[in-house]
Amino acid sequence: MSNYHIKHLEEYFQVYRKSVRDPESFWEEIAEEHFVWRKKWDKVLDWDFSKPEIKWFRNAKLNITENCLDRHLHTRGDKTAILFEPNDPKEEAQHITYRQLHEKVCRMANVLQDHGIKKGDRVCIYLPMIPELAVALLACARIGAIHSVVFAGFSSQALANRINDCDCKMVIASDGSYRGNKTLELKGIVDVALKECLGVESVLVVKRTGEKVEMQDGRDQWLQPLLDAASTECKAVEVDAEDPLFILYTSGSTGKPKGMVHTTGGYMVFVAYTFKNIFQYRENDVYWCTADIGWVTGHSYIVYGPLANGATSVMFEGVPSYPDYGRFWDVVEKHKVNQFYTAPTAIRALAKESLDYVEKHDLSSLKVLGSVGEPINEEAWHWYNTNVGKNKSPIVDTWWQTETGGIMISPIPYVTPTAPTYATLPFIGIQPALMDENENELKGNQVEGRLCIKFPWPGMARTIWGNHKRYGETYFSAYKNKYFTGDGALRDAVGYYRITGRVDDVIIVSGHNLGTAPIEDAINEHPAVAESAVVGFPHDVKGNALYGFVILKEVGESRVRENLKKEINQQITELIGPIAKLDKIQFVSGLPKTRSAKIMRRILRKIAGKDTSNLGDTSTLLNPEVIQEIMDNAL
Ligand code: WT7
Question: In this protein, which residues make up the domain named AMP-binding enzyme C-terminal (predicted)?
């Protein structure tokens, strides 16, 4: 038996060594024992990072939905696959069993086929977090169509760009969506987008909010009547292990979004194996990832990873602040959630509110807490650990990227001792390398450099849709024969990794490398601070100096604010050193953020550098209105 479920640290090290010594036979064993294939591979791995070309499970044939659905029908037919928790707590939760999900997927797959969708066609999915979203992904996979999910918070322009980039033939959308006490329209956004997307032949519309929508004759149809009329059986289309399963766009450091292409066989093996171990999922556990399926976290750890393991995966339509700031904890209590996976930004937002919201709920079902998306600062880590985990549920700080498909560096809970701000150890099969400026690998411990991965893993993206050259340039050209992540990291004395942030954000001050993440950590430790962002700006003597944009928990009077500036710098001096002190501190009411809640540093850098003539594309920001305020008060 292969080591599908790691149970103690010694076993981790033993399996890790095996996975590195002989990756092919390691992954082959996992693939053979835990998945169903129509036909096995004739070679486990072909790779050449200089091309770059990566192929896992050559010539193997499968359908991922047979792994996520059909094979569970005998043993888990009546088990809940998707537990849907609606935006409004007064609306009843839906327990969709594996049998029901199989039926729903087959019906939708038949509808897609009836609309001319074939293997290899691209289908754009623009839906809120309702069950139809998960069903739509799986329905595409059932017939070998490639899904391209666009987060239903993107604007019509962003949607149009993505639809056109990969020539989608169909769009699956809804009339609208619920977000807390707001109702948002979606179909109208699709209509505007489609004025620019001449390749789209049909639009299938899910009714969710009852908004009035316009249906274009010959193009748009309500989905439900078509589903009702469709058969509950749909033969799964056989695909090659290397056929694309989906495209998912990620913003590049600049310019056009990159359509990362994930293929089928390796992705399935990787997300299923990481899910099982990193959440220590056991039969009958209830697992909840709060991400949106519009992001890779949702693809891999709400849909494919959990379902490939026959898990119960909670799908939450709402927001953490509605009807109040206790909603997450209310849902944990209501569904007795065992594994809870969220983002530091959500933790920080909730930590600002009264502890009563947490304390009035019974969170005793929790066994594992997860964090993803950005470095988790010490303060947030401790708040999460103490108040949610009650110091007994390990926090898995999972580092990965859209491009990696699944989790790369993370503790295994109850196996790897955790440490705040550390993603700890590479997952089984992952071979990280830290590189210095001269492209040399930094060996040994207590080193800091640029994070690369030096050997392929099954879940990695294979290309950028329509632009293989850019794929090579972005990820495989900075360091020879290595995948470059764009992140910086350090490896401490015991070999634990801490992600220090994007290296594009590293600022060199007086010849010293300073990561923005640790400085922001230090600022955020100040009790008056809610959030901050640090960027560099040109300085005569130091080369670069530091500019901090700081959101305070309470605005306060100006004298107090001047004092706070001193205190913040004291805090930085204490936690990092005087070299990291900020030259300028500007208090702001918000920070420009992308829809995935990442701070748009590019804009802050321009404002800090007094170079605001061309701020670039700000159309995909969550809160474009803060930019003017920040510019007006810039120092
Ligand atoms: C970037 C990838 C991974 C799915 C969601 C984000 C940062 C992600 C962590 C973490 C420190 C993290 C990195 C990475 N990041 N997780 N646990 N600790 N940084 O996917 O939008 O592709 O972003 O997010 O900088 O490169 P993404």
Answer: 519-598
Tokens representing 431 are 């071979």
pLDDT in tens, 384-439: 999 999 999 999 999 999 999 999 999 999 999 999 999 999 999 999 999 998 89
Q: Give pLDDT tens digits for 250-259.
A: 865 444 678 9
pLDDT at residue 338 above 50?
Answer: yes
d(CA 214, CA 378): 49
Residue 519: strand, helix, or coil? helix
Contact in structure between 72 and 101 (CB atoms under 8 Å): no
Instruction: Please give the distance, rounded to the nearest whole angstrom, from the Cα atom of residue 574 to the centre of ligand 1.
Output: 28
Q: Which of 287, 293, 363, 298 is nearest to 326 (CA)?
A: 363
CA distance 31 to 272: 10
598 CA distance to ligand 1 centroid (A)?
A: 10
Q: Is 322 helix (H, G, I), strand (E, B) or coil?
A: coil
Q: Among positive and negative, which fits the CA dihedral 601, 605, 610, 612?
A: negative
Is the C-beta atom of 176 inside 6 A of ligand 1? no
Q: Is the CB of 413 under 6 A from ligand 1?
A: no
Q: Is the CB of 313 under 6 A from ligand 1?
A: no
Pairing of strands 170-174, 244-250: unpaired
Which run of H or E residues covers position 333? Answer: helix 327-335
Please tell me if the CB atom of residue 191 comes closer than 6 angstroms to any atom of ligand 1. no
Kind plus residue range of the DSSP H or E element containing 15: helix 9-21
Give bridge partners of residue 141 from the DSSP assignment: none
> Could you give phi then psi for residue 438, rounded to 5 degrees?
-95, 20
Identify the pLDDT of residue 305: 98
The structure tokens 């108040």 sit at: 387
* Residue 559, pLDDT above cutoff 60: yes
Residue from 466, 485, 487, 483 nearest 52 by CA: 483
Coil, strand, or helix at residue 61?
A: strand
Q: Is residue 52 reached through a cis peptide bond, with omega within 30 degrees of 0 on the bond before it?
A: yes
Q: ∠ at Cα 304 (299, 310), nearest 5°?
A: 145
**CA-CA distance, 216 to 593, in Å (whole number)?**
34
Nearest CA to ligand 1 atom 2: 401
